[in-house]
Amino acid sequence: MASSTPPYSINTSKPHQSPHPNPKSHLHKQQKRPHRLQSSPSMLSSSSYNSASSAHGKFLTPSSSTSLQSHHLSLPLLGPEFRRSRTTKVISKRNLSSPRTYFSQTRSASAAAVDITARLLCSSLDDIQGLKGILGSFQHKLKIPEDYCFVLHELGNRDKCPPKALAFFHASIPLMRNSTEKGKLLTAVIGILGKLGRHDLARQVFDFGLSQGFGNTVYAYSALISAYARNGLSSEAMSVFSLMKASGVRPNNISYNAVIDACGKGGVDLEITVGFFREMLQNGICPDRKTFNSLLAGCSHAGRLEDARILFDEMIDLGIGRDIYTYNTFIDVLCKGGNMKFAVEVIPDMLSSYIQPNVVTYSTLMDGYAKLERHDEALNLYMEMKSMGIQLDRVCYNTLLSIYVKSGRYEDITRVCEEMEVIGIDKDIITYNSLITGYGKQGRFDIVSYLIRDMREKGVASNVLTYSTLMDIYSKAGMYEDAANVFFDFKESGLKADVVLYSSFIDVLAKNGLVKCAVWLLDEMQQIGIEPNVVTYNTIIDGFGKSRFFVEGGIGNGMAGGKANCNQIVRIFGNLTKDIIQPMVDVATKKSEDLFCILGLFQRMIQQRVKPNVVTFSAILNACSRCDSFEDASLLLEQLRLFDSFVYGVAFGLLMGCRDAWLRAQSLFDEVRCMDNSTSSAFYNALTDMLWHYGQRRGAQQVVLEGVQRQVWENTWNEFTLDLHLMSSGAAQAMVHSWLLSMSAIISKGQKLPQVVSILTGWGKHSKVTGASPLRRVIQTLLNSIGAPFHLERFNIGRFVSPGAIASAWLRESGTITLLLLHDERSQPSSPLTLLPSLQALQL
DNA sequence: CTAGGGTTAG
To answer: Is the C-beta atom of A234 closer than 7 angstroms to strand B?
Structure first.
């Protein structure tokens, strides 16, 4: 095609994924077309993953760097010394030995330990004296240190109250007889605090141990590394690991496993993670199955399917063996890549190794299907799991809930909640966030408020996702002031913001045309070290020209050059919701300032190497439609060239009425069609709107027909019914023309129209007021202007109807066809003029 | 010391 490879790929992959764009494609949608298999199609061609044809020994020698493999780990992961230094049996056996469990600790605990635990569980927190009293009365019966560790574990597992565990620790330390015993208690409390998500307290108590001279042990360091690992704080874990070595404490295999685990979870570059692994080998410490499982999880996180498969195979070759964790992690890698076919094929493999799939296996697979929107298959697995007698746990319930939320099966949400209640599974923050999303989507803000109160009562702490979710649901409902208040509440929460939180609030601002405010927020987030991603930018670009309210003194002027200021934003939103409509000082000035802002954004995107995707293009096209002049729009469109000359060529060509652009447009349309419906229809809507807006009405019509041919808008076009509810106003208007023309063609062939022909506009997707659909008004105006004999149905204001006979008579009138035919304001001569097939079919 | 779940643009 006429394109050179664009400097950026067009895709809508999530920023944290590592895309491997199909080099042939301009447009690429990750969610629907997982890329992992594309990069190496033969990778899993055998149903047996450890077949002889697989990559034996790849970890032992640097892999030959073929183009397909160059992005895989080409590493001598295991040097020859590893092979010699161990027999596979020793490692296998070590892994098979029963792990030290909570159960074994329970057995070692004395009756007194069980008693004091019960007492402490019902004692109140603020009563430190009481705690000391209880401890004093049991002291002589408690075994040191085992019983104390047992109590700590119990408090952690059952009470889930970090301060109480901490208080018990501090009260118990003086009772320990030496550093070793103190160290054991310290390790226990660090582990518990880490488990409870309080890595901050874990660090404090660790530092306390160090200062008191009993913390400088391999156990304490490992526990702290693991505490950070659990909470996804990989850099902290790595720095503790360094500190450990600097303090002269030699890491053991648990320390290495913990740091490798932290890296895998925390999204550390896989090469760095593997670096720890190599170091481990160099220091003569044997990796075990957990090491490999953690490495595998690292591959999963990084989306490196091929590396995961190599590891998965190597585990057998090296005699490490696989366990349920190995299989589940590997299945997860496949699910993350969307390769469900292969993911389910792992099950027979597991069974032949006498490992039964468990609730984790099922929830992984269910979620894999759900991510591909294959909800039915996900629910089938749920049924299968139930029939196998596998009890759902909290994670699995949450997975199920998210499937119901995504698929809009709201009545099932209630059922699942009741079921959880009956079984005695408490909702956690993920459950609450899902429920908030679900009920928010239904507009049940009463239930949302109840959920927030309920969380507070049950002591479940909100997290940053709760706030982003709330902002999103309020924003989608047009409750912008509520959305803004969520952001200000967040600032007082003391939680750490992330890119999604900022993007959500920026979206709220952008939806109200507050482009400048949005850019201030962009600055603010960068100042506190949060990098914007393509979503952040797309959101702002899309906000251009959306201003639908006026503010005293103008939004720009009052705060020009200043920083984002909460009070000012509050004031703006206050005015917004009070419907204060005051004349803007100069609307045109604001718009040109905003345009300037947007142009600056493109530069920032390029500087920060944020890759635009098809949504960026849609946003730019929409922004063009909102420009005050053709010149401004051209200026904006020109920026598209920086990103992708091919897409630019098509858009600009169509805008200028170049017939030649249609050939390239065809291939662009085909690429867009490979993406999911909402993504592609948004692009068609944006492109059509721009063409329509700038007078290229025949061009707009052609784009719409291309879309119809490719079924971009589901079931939009029937012979006698037109459903416009998924279309933008330009697209809808172009569509009405085409549809009426096609009916006219039908009539001219001698066919009769049915009793009633109708046009559906829906009620408007994001309209604040029911029935106040802008689309409906646009269509009404259009129908009036051409004198089409349609009227709104009495009890369905989203539907225009006309008796077939009347429509037919109107279409037969002499001037009607002329009215319906669309023309371009600009056209440029083309080399052999060809009518598009879609237009020929309509005999236009 | 190892596995699975929740959020953003169109």
So the answer is: no
